[in-house]
Amino acid sequence: MKREQLPKIVVVIPVFNEEKTLLNVLGRVSKQADLLICVNDGSKDDSLKILKKFQKHKKSLFIVDLKVNTGMAGAIKNGFLFALFLQDKKLLGENDVIVTIDADGQHKPEYIRPLVKFLVRGDYDVVLTRRDFSAYPLYKVWGNRFLT
């Protein structure tokens, strides 16, 4: 059986004070992605140090280091802008896929490839997923609903 040809998968990971979960997430995401763009969003903990150490072994990891916290939207925007830079440098093509995933471990990186297959087969431009709040602490559920 011929292996399905997928576009290059680029994962943008906004990082803000995620030293406890970051290494696990990086290890799992790196198995699913061709390129990682990690945006250190002004972290005050050892997140940047962890990113740099991981980068020594994973040359397809790019770090965007923001000195001040810009929030989730700002970090993702900077990750997308860096992806455009990589496209200008011919490291990405116009049909490659960008996936965003949180660094706190709340998403399952193992869903990335099936999600991209769904996107490609359906000829979609965008696919959005939703969170399963059943395993969340109550304060995160209410915080997320309030912010939404």
Write up this protein.
It is built from 5 helices and 4 strands, in the order βαβαβαβαα. It is α/β, with parallel strands linked by helices and 148 residues long. The protein is globular. The N and C termini lie far apart (44 Å).
Q: Gist?
A:
With about 150 residues, this protein is α/β, with parallel strands linked by helices. About 40% of the residues lie in helices and about 15% in strands.
Features:
4 strands, 4-stranded parallel sheet, 5 helices, alpha/beta, 148 residues
**Element-by-element helix/strand order:** EHEHEHEHH
CA-based gyration radius:
16 Å
- Please state roughly what percent of the residues sit in beta strands, choosing from under 5%, 5-15%, 15-25%, 25-35%, 35-45% or over 45%: 15-25%
- The overall average pLDDT, rounded, is 90
Enumerate the strands of the largest sheet in spatial order, edge to edge or round the barrel: 3-2-1-4
Total beta strand runs: 4
Largest sheet: 4 strands, parallel
- Sum up the overall morphology in one term: globular
Q: Span between N and C termini?
A: 44 Å
The helix/strand class is alpha/beta
Number of helices: 5
- Identify low-pLDDT runs: none
The share of residues in helices is 25-40%
Characterize the quaternary organization of these chains: single chain
Task: Walk me through the topology.
Elements: E1 9-15, H1 22-30, E2 35-41, H2 47-57, E3 61-66, H3 71-88, E4 97-100, H4 112-121, H5 138-147
Parallel strand pairs: 1-2, 1-4, 2-3
